[in-house]
């Protein structure tokens, strides 16, 4: 029986499966970014001249497979086909399995080129371009068309069995998804609306911003319609991206409900959970190569068997992946990276699509996938993306490392330090600063001499770490930070603030703070077939569009709330100011309000404050005035066990007040339904501090969008306020109280950011009973 359509494979995938062998080898040789790779190919083309063809599309049918790919360059006059790879450091230390993979790709392209152009032979050249120096290293060989075709045919025969299983899996997956049903008798209120809008996003290939209240089941309400859309609209993969580990667990639970777990004998769906390397590593502290780690030795020799076992198992959460890896004696982290190629739904952190070196984004571009991207708690994406595209270097670290540096690193470290001192003097910070009062300068550009010294240090570090992997984690970290700094410095613009801070004598910090992530994220949104961003606090729409760089045609929808205003009593204490100058005067009325509300309805409450210092002052006053009411407070740098203990005190039959910092661990992402939490007090607008960075942010946002104060301060603050208040009503049976304690909550421009389903808050001041309306 013939296949319903020809089996297709790209040259890169074909070689990834058939040409890798030997050890896993990641000896501190950080790969150039995708941008550097593209720039490198352009530079080689510029050097070659007018007869040089780039991005040569090739295809052919071989041993029952249609093989496609794009060769990097072809010189028609010299009859020379080139495969161009960018790298860092000494080419001699490039892993042997990488070199073998590159040669296999080139020979596949050579076979297709000879067949297409009726050539008897061709010159094949691997070109390695060192991105730091621009130096080319070439490896050339002459090959006949017959030999190349026989080699390609053999690879295709080896791959064909896997390709047939993959095609069969795709057919079974799509057939099952066409028949998938919602796992409950009916949708929750609001959930159907969210599901319909999510399906439309997949059908039309656009970005959806969905503001949907907590408690309606957003995870199922977005996953279910995207799974339904996969066969109908040709989606190859789904990426469910979260901000924190609990979000991944919720996604896996939803997929289990939908029948994706093999024990349910339900969907023929491969599900993969991606975990950070430091959490997946079985041998922390060891280098990722065969001489140091037993799970790296022979990794590619054992990969075919474990890959088949993983594909057969289908459900690859962290525990299952580790179990397979241990059984087959391979690295669980890199097994997960490999299975990202072959999984239908990948659940992981947002960095896997949006970071500069994002795995899933890179695979999608390489494979030409149509990807549906779901982003949970998407109100955090702006802040997370700013972190992804920000980096800093500390002069103090350079000085400390220089004292113990190998001889070969002392000179480049010294040159960088001298250039750094020149920058400090020219910026006028030579005599500035002092304890508690760092001098700060914002720079429009960076001196080429300083960047050149940093590039030289990065090259020297790469060389040293390649020769001596045990040199130390601090040196590896410095290498990665240096490379990240150089990449971002190349793209310095109004989206990023370059800040030089003097922290003391001989101690300055040079930082690139991303302010407007839109310039980096726009291409990531464009690369996805569709994206669904969802959160309980995703407004205003223009704020998300502008700062995330969403494409034209993106839509914003507010899902109607299943909750009624009668469930939540919202009031504003307009006689209290939580401004810094008024903090002392605010302690007594805040404490009185909390105690009075607890007396009216005993139960558990959360009280949120703008800082630990403010929290500690109110907490001490509360304990002194009302020792009979149980009270406990969030502490600085709490461990996971301490956070669990804090939450464990919110029992259904108890009462008391938990004091927490707004925007911290207890301001979002926690679930205390029913009588476990009956109210919240918010004694702050949550405004970011008016420090130099936020003031620069306000100025840049005002210049670009004309909305500096709103985008820099008011919107981020109110998102934290609404998230904290959202801890109170978690399902349709809940009822509770929210007290907003600051006179600015009575202003229209502030109240417009409160959820509409709350209704009109009661604006009041304290009277004899604590509740006399104004």
From TrEMBL:
SUPFAM superfamilies: P-loop containing nucleoside triphosphate hydrolases (SSF52540). GO terms for molecular function: 4 iron, 4 sulfur cluster binding; ATP binding; DNA binding; DNA helicase activity; hydrolase activity, acting on acid anhydrides, in phosphorus-containing anhydrides; metal ion binding. One of its GO terms (biological process) is DNA repair. InterPro entries: ATP-dep_Helicase_C (IPR006555), DinG/Rad3-like (IPR045028), Helic_SF1/SF2_ATP-bd_DinG/Rad3 (IPR014013), Helicase-like_DEXD_c2 (IPR006554), P-loop_NTPase (IPR027417), RAD3-like_helicase_DEAD (IPR010614). Residues 177-426 form the Helicase ATP-binding domain. Keywords: 4Fe-4S, ATP-binding, DNA damage, DNA repair, DNA-binding, Helicase, Hydrolase, Iron, Iron-sulfur, Isomerase, Metal-binding, Nucleotide-binding. Belongs to the helicase family. DinG subfamily. This is ATP-dependent DNA helicase. It comes from Halomonas icarae. The lineage of its organism: Bacteria, Pseudomonadati, Pseudomonadota, Gammaproteobacteria, Oceanospirillales.
């Amino acid at each position: 029986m013939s296949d319903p359509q020809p089996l297709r494979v790209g040259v890169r995938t074909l070689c990834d499966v058939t040409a890798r062998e030997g050890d896993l080898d990641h000896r501190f040789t950080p790969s150039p970014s995708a941008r550097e790779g593209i720039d490198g190919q352009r530079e080689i083309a510029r050097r070659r001249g007018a007869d040089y063809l780039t991005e040569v599309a090739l295809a052919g049918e071989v041993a029952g497979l249609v093989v496609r790919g794009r060769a990097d360059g072809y010189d028609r006059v010299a009859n020379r086909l080139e495969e161009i790879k960018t790298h860092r450091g000494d080419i001699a230390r490039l892993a042997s399995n990488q070199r073998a993979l590159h040669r296999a790709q080139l020979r596949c392209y050579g076979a297709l080129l000879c067949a297409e152009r009726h050539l008897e032979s061709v010159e094949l050249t691997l070109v390695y371009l060192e991105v730091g120096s621009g130096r080319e290293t070439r490896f050339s060989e002459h090959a006949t068309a017959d030999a190349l075709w026989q080699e390609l045919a053999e690879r295709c025969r080896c791959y064909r069995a896997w390709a047939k299983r993959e095609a069969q899996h795709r057919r079974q997956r799509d057939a099952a998804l066409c028949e998938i049903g919602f796992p409950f008798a009916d949708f929750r209120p609001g959930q159907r609306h969210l599901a319909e809008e999510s399906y439309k996003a997949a059908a039309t290939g656009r970005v959806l911003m969905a503001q949907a209240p907590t408690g309606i089941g957003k995870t199922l309400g977005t996953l279910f319609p995207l799974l339904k859309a996969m066969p109908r609209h040709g989606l190859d993969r789904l990426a469910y991206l979260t901000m924190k580990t609990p979000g991944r667990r919720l996604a896996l639970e939803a997929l289990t409900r939908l029948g994706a777990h093999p024990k349910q004998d339900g969907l023929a769906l491969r599900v993969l959970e991606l975990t950070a390397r430091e959490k997946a590593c079985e041998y922390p502290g060891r280098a990722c190569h065969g001489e140091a780690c037993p799970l790296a030795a022979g990794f590619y020799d054992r990969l075919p068997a474990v890959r088949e076992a993983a594909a057969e198992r289908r459900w690859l959460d962290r525990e299952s992946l580790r179990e397979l890896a241990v059984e087959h004696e391979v690295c669980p982290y890199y097994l997960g990276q490999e299975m990202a190629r072959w999984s239908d739904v990948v659940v992981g952190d947002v960095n896997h699509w949006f970071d500069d070196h994002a795995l899933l984004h890179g695979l999608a571009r390489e494979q030409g996938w149509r990807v549906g991207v779901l982003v949970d708690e998407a109100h955090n994406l702006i802040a997370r993306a700013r972190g992804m595209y920000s980096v800093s270097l500390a002069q103090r670290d350079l000085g400390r490392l220089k004292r113990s540096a190998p001889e070969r690193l002392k000179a480049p470290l010294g040159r960088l330090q001298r250039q750094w001192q020149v920058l400090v003097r020219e910026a006028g910070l030579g005599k500035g600063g002092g304890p508690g009062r760092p001098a700060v300068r914002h720079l429009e550009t960076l001196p080429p001499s300083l960047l050149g010294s940093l590039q030289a240090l990065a090259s020297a570090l790469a060389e040293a770490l390649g020769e001596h992997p045990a040199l130390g984690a601090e040196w590896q970290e410095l290498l990665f930070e240096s490379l990240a700094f150089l990449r971002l410095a190349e793209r310095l613009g109004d989206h990023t603030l370059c800040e030089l801070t003097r922290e003391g004598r001989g101690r300055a910090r040079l930082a690139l703070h991303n302010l407007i992530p839109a310039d980096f994220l726009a291409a990531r949104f464009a690369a996805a077939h569709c994206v669904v961003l969802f959160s309980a606090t995703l407004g205003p729409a223009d704020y998300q569009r502008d700062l995330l760089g969403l494409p034209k045609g993106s839509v914003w929808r507010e899902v109607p709330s299943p909750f009624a205003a009668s469930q939540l009593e919202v009031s504003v204490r307009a006689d209290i100011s939580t401004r810094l100058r008024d903090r002392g005067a605010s302690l007594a009325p805040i404490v009185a309000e909390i105690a009075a509300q607890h007396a009216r309805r005993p139960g558990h409450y959360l009280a949120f404050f703008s800082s630990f210092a403010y929290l500690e002052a109110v907490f001490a006053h509360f304990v002194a005035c009302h020792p009979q009411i149980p009270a406990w407070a969030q502490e600085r740098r709490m461990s996971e066990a301490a956070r669990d203990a804090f939450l464990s005190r919110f029992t259904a039959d108890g009462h008391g007040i938990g004091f927490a910092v707004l925007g911290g661990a207890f301001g979002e992402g926690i679930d205390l339904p029913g009588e476990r939490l009956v109210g919240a007090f918010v004694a702050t607008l949550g405004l970011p501090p008016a420090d130099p960075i936020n003031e620069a942010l306000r100025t840049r946002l005002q210049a670009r969008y004309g909305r500096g104060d709103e985008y820099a301060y008011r919107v981020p603050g109110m998102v934290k306020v609404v998230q904290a208040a959202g801890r109170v009503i978690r399902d349709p049976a809940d009822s509770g109280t929210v007290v907003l304690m600051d006179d600015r909550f009575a202003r229209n421009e502030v109240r417009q950011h409160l959820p509409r389903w709350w209704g009109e808050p009661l604006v009041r001041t304290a009277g004899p009973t604590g509740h006399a309306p104004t």
